[in-house]
Amino acid sequence: TSLSIVGNVNGLPDSEKLFLDIAANRIITTSSDINSFITLPETINVPENIVLSGNFKGSPTTFEYKLYAGTNRGRVIALGSFYKMDSQKPGYKLAAKIDEFDLGFILKNDQLGNINIGANISGEGFDPETMTAIYSLNSDTITVNGYSYSNIEFTGNLNKGIVTTKGEIED
């Protein structure tokens, strides 16, 4: 395992003035390294090779992040932001893309295959009874039981405990 992380931390010791600008330029590890210090459930496999990179910039109450995780079993890219984390209704935005992710290997389930999914969500609040959010989910391909489903799209919103979803599969 190796890592290259650089950054700046400003405002300490006053947590109200804390500001972080951290970049994980490259973190490389293997499943054997991870399994040597973390006990995972029997139903989970870790990809053999993992490369991570990303950044975090902001304060504890308002920040942006970007994450890239590449493995020999697929890739994940996520970016987004959180704001007003010190309020009753903190806000968030997330965009994520999962490419050629071997879900069957990860979950030790031969009925599942590779997935390709894009997701976006933005909203305010974390309590399902008061939160509001909109989301979209689309997939080029999801393989289940050896069959690849394609052109899957879901959109919807959550408004104070009520979920509204519209979905299409043009297979």
Can you tell me about this structure?
- It is built from two helices and ten strands.
- β8 and β9 (147-159) form a beta hairpin.
- It is flat and about 55 Å long.
- By secondary structure, the protein is mainly beta.
- The mean pLDDT is 95.
- 6% of the residues lie in helices and 64% in strands.
Throw out a few tags for this protein.
2 helices, mainly beta, flat, 171 residues
On the 0 to 100 scale, the average pLDDT is 95
Terminal Cα span: 42 Å
**Secondary-structure element pattern, one letter each:** EEHEEEEHEEEE
**Strands, total number:** 10
Fraction of helical residues: under 10%
Q: How are the strands ordered across the major sheet?
A: 1-2-3-4-5-6-7-8-9-10
Largest sheet: 10 strands, antiparallel
- C-alpha geometry: flat
Task: Give unreliable regions as ranges.
Answer: none
The assigned structural class equals mainly beta
List the helices and strands and how they pair.
Layout: E1 2-10, E2 19-30, H1 31-37, E3 49-58, E4 63-71, E5 74-83, E6 91-102, H2 103-106, E7 112-124, E8 132-144, E9 147-159, E10 162-169
Antiparallel strand pairs: 1-2, 2-3, 3-4, 4-5, 5-6, 6-7, 7-8, 8-9, 9-10
